Amino acid sequence: MATNSQRPSKAERTASAREQAQSMRIAQEAADKRKSLFIKLGVLVAVLAVVGLIVALVLQNNSGKVADSGAVPKGGNEFGGITLTSDKTLADTSGLSVDINNVGTRDASQTSPTPRGETVAPKGEPINMILYVDVNCVHCAEFEGAYGDQISTWLAAGDVRVEYRNVAILDGASPTNYSSRGANALACVADAAPASYLPFAKAVFAHYPEGEMKNSELAAMAKDNGADVADCIDKGTFRSFAAFTHAASGVDAIGGTPSVFIQGKYYDANTEPDFVGVVNAAIAANK
């Protein structure tokens, strides 16, 4: 049994309690510092992640404001179109440019779609067709899936000249301006490898169910179809051309995509569902 002489004195007990309290405070302060550090690191990581996302989006969108004026791709025209003269060749045009400040304004009385530069091919010539499409448009993807091969066949036979006007109606629903970037990619392919235009366009629209593509994916798809245009796509070389095409479509009262014009007449799928029949009739009438 312990004696009174073996028990700690009051002073000793007080000193021990103070030491224990101090040890606890030191431990708590260390824990608080570690917690604060972890919180700060977490915030820093989150901020860096947001910054990285913003930077990635900016880069993906071809950073910087799209210039008002810019070059037209080979095979392109001053109206914003790219014209195929066969399934592997484009119109013989080069050295042109467009300026969105010169796109014009719509006349208040204009309500029906009227593509600028639209012409009717003379008798004995391939008929003229204008297609307004958006790479992010489901109905354009369906149209391409249904009629893309047939259009290629008409082109190969010399029965039609097809002008593609790639617009960006759906950019507002895309965080990366996919419609504009896709239009730029199509222009890049036209400029560098005309024979690759139709295969690349077909591949782009076939990809629609899988969602938007990054520039690197567009470039890889172009290369798979015979066009090495990664630099053109990354730089957004023809973004000004794409912007002009889209702005012109608004001035010209083009209401949606796909919009098709055959020999100067708007093709209405609701009243004339047999697209192939309508085109074949126009071809036969122009022979």
How would you characterize the overall build of this protein?
With 287 residues, the chain is of the alpha+beta class. It is built from 8 helices and 7 strands; from the N terminus they run αββββαβαααααββα. A hairpin with a 2-residue loop joins strand 6 and strand 7. Helix 3 crosses helix 7. This is Thioredoxin domain-containing protein. Residues 127-274 form the Thioredoxin-like fold domain.
Features:
two-stranded antiparallel ribbon; Glutaredoxin; elongated; membrane; alpha+beta; 287 residues; disordered N terminus; 8 helices
Question: What's the structural blueprint in terms of helices and strands?
Answer:
Layout: H1 10-60, E1 69-71, E2 82-84, E3 97-99, E4 127-133, H2 138-156, E5 160-166, H3 178-192, H4 197-206, H5 215-224, H6 230-235, H7 239-251, E6 259-262, E7 265-267, H8 275-285
Parallel strand pairs: 4-5
Antiparallel strand pairs: 1-3, 2-5, 4-6, 6-7
Helix pairs in contact: 2-4, 3-4, 3-5, 3-7
What is this structure, in a nutshell?
This protein is an alpha+beta fold and 287 residues long. The protein has helices spanning 10-60, 138-156, 178-192, 197-206, 215-224, 230-235, 239-251, 275-285; strands at 69-71, 82-84, 97-99, 127-133, 160-166, 259-262, 265-267.
